[in-house]
Write a structure and sequence with these properties.
Layout: E1 5-6, E2 11-16, E3 36-42, H1 52-62, E4 80-83, E5 96-101, H2 107-114, H3 126-133, H4 150-164, E6 170-178, E7 181-182, H5 188-193, H6 205-220, E8 227-234, H7 248-257, E9 262-267, H8 278-281, E10 285-288, E11 293-296, E12 304-305, E13 308-309, E14 314-320, E15 330-334, E16 339-343, H9 354-380, H10 388-391
Antiparallel strand pairs: 1-2, 2-3, 3-5, 4-5, 6-7, 6-8, 8-14, 9-14, 10-11, 12-13, 15-16
Helix pairs in contact: 1-4, 1-9, 4-9, 7-9
């Protein structure tokens, strides 16, 4: 399996599966080392204070079992840093190694998956994993295709956050739509004020109550709900990204679309640009005399021009599919004997992915931005440009 590293200069490599360690239980192996998730973050500058507590804050946002909307799986997601920091927990410039053990991998749950391991669950990756890895594919909890894989991403994103904090760059994601129920328009101040004030992390507190009631009602039918996550990036400097294949828009889209449940993405006005005329879509500029910098009257472009950050607020929206595991009979195939079957799997699941996917989006955005900043600063250090271009 390839493709487990993201980034070019700031590189995050992950490994581990949903039920990693479930077949390695052995009295001679410490329980924490049965299996779990690993993250290696390469390219971290020396002199950044990195603690397990800092990383734990981010992992606790996506930890299961925090509300009735979540999977009842009781993973502790306890963070251990095992390399890359020394005295006073300061980074040395070496790769940061992080391990998060799996602890809720009981035989009863493995048995539930074994009962239908040859049946491809609709909406899951079983069929494609069978085609890709044959009889050796990981059938327990979807393996690397499980949402549990994102634990490693959040750990890497937590390290990126500690770097971005030094530059005043803030990334915040939140729910704006669930199963057709939409929040009122959200600005940065509203998002910060009401961040994580409810189980679904919707800044519109009234809409959040409606969303949660609706999800719980849908859950009783055995179904699940999808929705939309919005993300704002504040404080991003202009000039990040390359103008052709490696546009910052493109790398952010790559980062977001690499999250399994994301099925669509918009920047700025997104698909609404199809309804506009050119002069309406264009973001007109003015010279801000207070700061001496170029600013924009509108932000239909979502913070980019030519794929390069323009210094304005970046705004991204992502469509999140319903949790594919449902307690509803669905038609599929038994690949062992080549027959059509009806399947209603008994496994733990989230009624909605919205309450736990937003920190994954934040993490992937932070990793992308740190990588882009390192590339920009390295390239810029070799240029001899007029200083006015740094100031405008």
């Amino acid at each position: 399996m390839t493709g487990n590293t993201f980034g070019r200069l700031f590189r995050v490599t992950t490994c581990g599966e949903s039920y990693s360690g479930c077949f390695r239980k052995n009295p001679e192996i410490p329980k924490q080392l049965y299996g779990g998730l690993l993250t290696i973050v390469d390219g971290v500058p020396a002199g950044i204070r990195i603690t397990a507590e800092d990383i734990q804050v981010e992992l606790d946002k996506r930890k299961p079992g925090q509300s009735k909307l979540d999977s009842p799986r009781l993973e502790k997601d306890k963070v251990y840093i095992f390399s890359g920091v020394m005295e006073n927990q300061m980074s040395t410039g070496a790769p940061i190694g992080i391990v998060i053990p799996n602890n809720d991998i009981e035989d009863i749950h493995v048995g539930q998956y074994h009962d239908y391991k040859d049946m491809a669950r609709p909406g899951h990756a079983e069929l494609t994993f069978m085609k890709r890895y044959g009889q050796y594919n990981d059938w327990v909890g979807a393996g690397r295709a499980s949402g549990r894989e994102t634990v490693s991403r959040v750990a890497g994103g937590a390290v990126a956050k500690l770097i971005l904090d030094k530059y005043g760059i803030d990334v915040i994601a939140y729910t704006v739509e669930s199963h057709g129920i939409k929040a009122a328009p959200v600005d940065y101040e509203m998002a910060k004020k009401n961040y994580r004030k409810n189980n679904i992390n919707c800044p519109d507190l009234e809409a959040a109550e409606q969303m949660e009631r609706d999800i719980l009602a849908v859950r009783k039918t055995g179904e699940t709900c999808g929705g939309v996550i919005e993300m704002i990036i504040r404080g991003l400097p202009a000039g990040l990204g390359e103008p052709v294949f490696d546009k910052l828009e493109a790398t952010l889209a790559h980062a977001m679309m690499s999250i399994g449940a994301i099925k669509g993405i918009e920047f700025g006005a997104g698909f609404r640009v199809a309804e506009m005329v050119g002069s309406e879509c264009n973001d007109e500029m003015y010279w801000d005399k207070e700061t001496g910098r170029v600013k924009f009257y509108t932000n239909h472009a979502g913070g980019f021009l030519g794929g390069i950050s323009n210094g304005d607020e970046v705004r991204i929206r992502m469509a999140v599919k319903p949790t594919p595991t449902v307690d509803v009979v669905q038609r599929t195939v038994d690949t062992d004997n080549g027959t059509d079957v009806n399947l209603s799997p008994i496994t733990r699941r989230d009624a909605s992915l919205l309450p736990r996917i937003y920190p994954v989006c934040e993490a992937m955005a932070r990793i992308t931005i740190v990588d882009a900043m390192m590339i920009f600063n390295g390239y810029r250090s070799m240029e001899d440009l007029d200083k006015k271009y740094d100031l405008m």
